[in-house]
Amino acid sequence: SQGDFPSESQVYEDAQLAWDYLVKQRGIHPSQIYIYGHSLGGAIAIDLAVRHPEAAGLIVEGSFTSARAMVDFQAGIYRVFPIDLLLTQRFDSIAKVDRLQMPVLFIHGAADTVVPTQMSKKLFDAAPEPKQLYIVPDGGHNNTAQIGGAEYLRVVNQFLDKTAVETAPTQTKTAVETTPTQTKTAVETAPTQTKSASAD
User: What phi-psi label fits residue 139: left (phi over 0), alpha (psi between -120 and 50 degrees) or beta?
Assistant: First the structure.
């Protein structure tokens, strides 16, 4: 995306506004909401999930442990994230994941050169149960769903099925999707599953 990156506090506030819209204005029960974040959005998703343990589950894809760790990793290489952002914002996910109180699925591409796969492994190790780690063979930073194909869908759908709250035969499940520059909400009515598109 183009333009200035928002502050850490601003993106957390945006995510909270999306949550409030779904719960307070749309009247969707928190147990029907899954939180998803990719890359920097994963840090936003983790923060929102810690503040809302009543959510159904959390999916974090291709994300990092902290901004400081990304500064160290990007030293001497092409920087995908602006160095000013990484030096002034914490995005300290590794210090938050042990406070999660919901099922969490970590996804990472084995060939990701933007955010090292090891960071998702560290987040997974620090998170409490129930948790799952899915490493996509040959997957990069932005193509895990494409590379993973049917197996990717199977893992995600299995996670959703395991964590789904049994309600009426036809129910509404909602995904709060976080991105580095904005928070999106998607509402989908389906008998058994919630889908959310990958976002950078």
Answer: beta
* HSE-up (13 A, CA, CB side) for residue 109: 20
The rounded distance, in Å, linking the Cα atoms of 182 and 41 is: 9
Token pair 């194909």: residue: 149
Blockwise average pLDDT, block size 10, the chain, 200 residues: 68 97 96 96 97 98 92 64 63 96 98 96 98 98 98 97 59 56 38 39
pTM of the entire structure? 0.79
Domains of the chain: 8-190 (3.40.50.1820)
The neighbouring-strand residues paired with 106 are 60, 133
Q: What is the DSSP letter of 175?
A: E
Please tell me the distance from the alpha carbon of residue 172 to that of residue 168, in angstroms, as a whole number.
Answer: 9
Active site residues: 39, 112, 141
In angstroms, rounded to a whole number, what is the distance separating the alpha carbons of residues 68 and 81? Answer: 12
DSSP 132-158: EEEEETT--SS-HHHHHHHHHHHHHHH
